[in-house]
Specification:
The complex is a heterodimer.
Chain A lengths: L20 H23 L2 H23 L5 H5 L2 H11 L8 H15 L12 H12 L1 H4 L20 E2 L5 E2 L19 H6 L11 H13 L6 H16 L12 H6 L3 H8 L10 H21 L6 H18 L13
Antiparallel strand pairs in A: 1-2
Helix pairs in contact in A: 1-2, 1-4, 1-9, 2-4, 2-5, 4-5, 4-6, 5-6, 6-14, 9-12, 10-12, 10-13, 13-14
Chain B lengths: L1 H4 L26 E2 L5 E5 L9 E2 L6 E2 L4 E4 L8 E2 L4 E10 L6 E9 L20 H10 L12 H4 L10 E6 L8 H8 L1 H15 L3 E7 L3 H10 L6 E6 L8 H9 L14 E5 H13 L5 E7 L7 E6 L4 H7 L8 E4 L6 E3 L13 E5 L15 H5 L6 H9 L3 H6 L10 H5 L6 H18 L1
Parallel strand pairs in B: 1-14, 9-10, 9-12, 10-11, 13-17
Antiparallel strand pairs in B: 2-8, 3-5, 4-7, 5-6, 7-8, 13-14, 15-16, 15-17
Helix pairs in contact in B: 2-5, 5-8, 11-14
The chains are: A mainly alpha, B alpha/beta.
């Protein structure tokens, strides 16, 4: 035995849980793969290119900004958080988006939304969603208008396996509208099996409910996200659709199942409303957050000009998070029960 | 088998399940008496409260069990010679817990190892008076052996306006790696129960409740059988969860009573004693043996023969580590368990004290790189005291001590659940300890 070994002196505890930021982030990446596969299956390989471009831009931007901020680069770049942002952003974009849109969006997400506030852990808004909101303003034609115009971009071959025949026997191009929730008259109504599998128009990663559920269930099983945020969020939208008076005369206007399965609700509920950094800390706070997001989503879908409300509702509730935290502080032990 | 019964097991809200429980290293190994040390270093401060005054001087010949440090004031506990021999020096020595040099009496061992006159005498405890029990506990220098080292006679002196209806005995041993209480319960159940009954008699309490974690089912069965005819002493299995053995969590699990972190169990009519303390009380009252030795778990991957030792107080740890075949490449020595234990910087000077229940030796101890909080909320879910460790750690990093004070930083018991569970590996307990020290400094200035 030698005596002059350098002994480590540190504060307790001396053991740590195996979970770490990289483990959580890479698990999220893994859980997003089914939705990506569904996207490629529905919209073609061009989606893969968009996801790749978006992720790689996110990582490069992360490294670049860390260099500027003179922060340690290797561990931060390897933790996977930039990849998560990149993938999530790509999943919220239309499948026919031109290549520069995810590049600009990813750069904005990492450089502006994440790092101007201090990097991972300090950002106020979900970087992917804030970037998507930015793109909606910067490239409204790409995000909002009729997507048929855009098929000339990218690979040029967008629609392949979801040809549909309308009532008159005429072949119509299925993937021509941004979302099944579009409010124009005469929009197609989709069967529930289609909504679940995801062979419907929509953004790259939002259409397949089954694929998103698979990823979400994995994260809940690993305890990286809570079950109650997605459940309260989706349930709130469901109830709101039941009770709100419809303002448009689509056949599905008051069908809550259609509302929760179509559009970006599952992607938002399982992967964005559960983002740790931008949501409240306590369980009570998270439930409040989820319900608030659900109410806002339904209100935006019903009474605004936008067909979809997931993005803005989550961003608005992100903004309210410090306030929610203030009113839902954990209760000190012993204050819970007053009697002896 | 544990998972099946889980729903029925008593427990508290919060806490953690450490992945590396480490008890398997020592739990099935027969405990041994450590060879008598050549020299012992007996601190005058081995308890919470005023340090003792040494009543021997250099060159004095002392016998095992002889009083060498007299308690000063009420909250203080006597210190006795743990071996027979000669006082070779009384000097400030590096204290393993306080982290500074404090007065210690150094005794060199003589050949014989016999008790001092008056100690080690069997006595009839059936007709002993409550005051006599307390007096014997006090003179034996008994402190809480679970680690807190609060003088036991002080605990047993109840304020006039408080009454106790239940004595809670802590057999949880929730710290990972430690098995000294388990081994003691396995081999001295009758003595421990006698000690418990003496405590009940001392404070005039009719009921007792023993809590044992579900990984010690054999001990539970043992106690249950011994106490089959005594319905006023209940024995219960509790979920294996850290910190199940802390006073608040133990009382919540067994009695379903809650009290504030700063309050004592007295507030809810309970008093908690550790099984090791109960055993020491039995020895002190029945045989008038002062507290001069205790069970210590020497374990971890830095020793080849992890084991429980019955060791004299003041034994240099180097000797215990040699007995346990310490490896050459160790890089961390911890007094206590891995959750709340205190690291030792010097293997040559560290010696055991009354509160030392374990020595954990590691060869692959890591330094964790910490990161900004990602607000996952795991620390809040795990905090058994309802604090917000995430917010506290951020406020302390910004040196906002007043904010931390507002957010109850002083209520923290430093159990370590938050730091353990944090995926960003934030040194939350470290920061909280720092804040408490800073706040104390500010107070002292005013």
């Amino acid at each position: 035995m030698q005596s002059n070994n350098a002994l480590l002196v540190s504060a307790s505890p001396h053991i740590r849980d195996i979970e770490s930021i990289p483990r959580i982030m890479w698990a999220v990446v893994l859980s997003l793969i089914p939705a990506g596969i569904a996207g490629v299956f529905t919209f073609g390989y061009y989606c893969l290119y968009i996801v790749f471009l978006s992720s790689i831009t996110a990582v490069i931007t992360e490294v670049f900004i860390l260099l500027l901020r003179k922060q340690p680069i290797v561990s931060a770049a390897k933790d996977g958080s930039a990849v998560v942002t990149g993938i999530l952003l790509a999943y919220t974009l239309p499948p026919s988006v031109p290549w520069y849109v995810p590049v600009v969006g990813s750069f904005f997400a990492i450089a502006i939304v994440k790092h101007t506030f201090g990097g991972l852990g300090n950002n106020i808004w979900n970087p992917a969603l804030a970037a998507r909101a930015f793109l909606q303003v910067a490239y409204p034609a790409v995000i909002n208008s009729d997507w048929r115009v855009l098929t000339q971009h990218g690979m040029g071959k967008l629609v392949h396996n979801i040809a549909k025949v309308d009532a008159g026997g005429k072949l119509v191009d299925a993937v021509t509208r941004a979302t099944p929730l579009a409010k124009e008259a005469g929009v197609e109504t989709y069967h529930f099996s289609q909504l679940l599998i995801g062979n419907i128009p929509g953004c790259i990663g939002e259409t397949s409910v089954i694929a998103l559920l698979l990823g979400g269930a994995y994260l809940i099983y690993k305890r990286y996200i809570n079950w109650y945020v997605p459940v309260y969020y989706i349930a709130t939208v469901f109830i709101m659709v039941l009770i709100l008076p419809p303002r448009i005369a689509t056949p599905w206007a008051n069908n809550p199942f259609y509302h929760i399965f179509a559009g970006g609700l599952f992607l938002g509920a399982f992967f964005m409303a559960t983002d740790m950094v931008t949501t409240p800390l306590t369980k009570r706070g998270l439930v409040l957050f989820a319900v608030g997001t659900g109410v806002l989503t339904a209100l935006i879908r019903f009474y605004s000009g936008y067909p979809e409300g997931v993005c803005y509702s989550i961003l608005l509730m992100n903004t309210a998070t410090p306030l929610i935290d203030r009113f839902t502080k954990p209760q000190l032990y012993g204050d819970r029960i007053k009697k002896v | 088998m544990i998972t099946l019964a889980k729903s029925k097991l008593k427990t508290f809200i919060g806490g953690i399940h450490p992945r590396d429980d480490g008890k398997v290293l020592t739990r099935s190994k027969q405990e041994v008496s450590a060879p008598l040390p050549k020299t012992v270093y007996l601190f005058m401060s081995q308890h919470i409260g005023a340090p003792c005054k040494p009543i021997v001087k250099k060159g004095d010949i002392v016998k095992k069990g002889q009083l060498i440090g007299e308690s000063q004031g009420f909250v203080s506990a006597n210190v006795h010679a743990s071996i027979s021999g000669k006082v070779i020096e009384i000097v400030p020595w590096p204290h393993p817990v306080a982290g500074i040099r404090l007065p210690a009496v150094i005794i060199e061992r003589a050949e014989e190892d016999s008790w001092v006159e008056g100690a080690d005498a069997d006595s009839d405890t059936d007709r002993i008076s409550p005051d006599e029990i307390k007096q014997r506990i006090q003179s034996a220098g008994i402190v809480g052996l679970g680690g807190a080292t609060f003088p036991t006679h002080v605990k047993l002196t109840l304020p006039k306006d408080k009454s106790i209806d239940t004595v809670v005995m802590n057999g949880a041993e929730c710290e990972p790696y430690l098995t000294c209480d388990y081994r003691l319960m396995l081999h001295k159940p009758h003595e421990i129960i006698q000690g418990l009954k003496l405590v009940m008699k001392c404070i005039g309490c009719k009921k007792a409740h023993i809590g044992i974690e579900a990984d010690k089912k054999d001990v539970y069965t043992l106690f249950k059988n011994i106490l089959s005819n005594e319905p006023h002493i209940k024995v219960d299995l509790m979920e294996v969860k850290y910190p199940q053995g802390a006073e608040h969590q133990l009382i919540k699990a067994l009695l379903n009573r809650e009290f504030k972190p700063t309050q004592l169990p007295l507030e809810v009519g309970a008093i908690v004693i550790n099984v090791g303390t109960a055993f020491a009380i039995y020895e002190a009252v029945k045989f008038k043996r002062p507290l001069i030795q205790r069970m210590i778990t020497v374990t971890g991957n830095g020793v080849e023969r992890p084991q429980n030792f019955l060791a004299r107080l003041g034994t240099p740890i180097k000797q215990l580590l040699e007995e346990a075949k310490v490896t050459t490449d160790i890089n961390k020595i911890i007094f206590g368990g891995p959750m709340m234990g205190i690291t030792q910087g010097n293997i040559d000077t560290a010696v055991t004290i009354k509160g030392t229940g374990g020595i954990l030796v590691l060869r692959d101890a890591q330094r964790w790189e910490s990161h900004a909080c990602i607000r996952c909320g795991r620390c809040i879910d795990s905090c058994p005291y309802g604090l917000n460790p995430s917010e506290l750690s951020i406020q302390i990093e910004a040196k906002e001590f007043n904010l931390a004070l507002e957010n109850n930083v002083m209520e923290c018991k430093e159990c370590g659940c938050c730091s353990y569970i944090c995926p960003a590996k934030r040194p939350i307990v470290h920061l909280i300890k720092f804040a408490k020290a800073e706040i104390a400094k500010q107070k002292a200035k005013v």
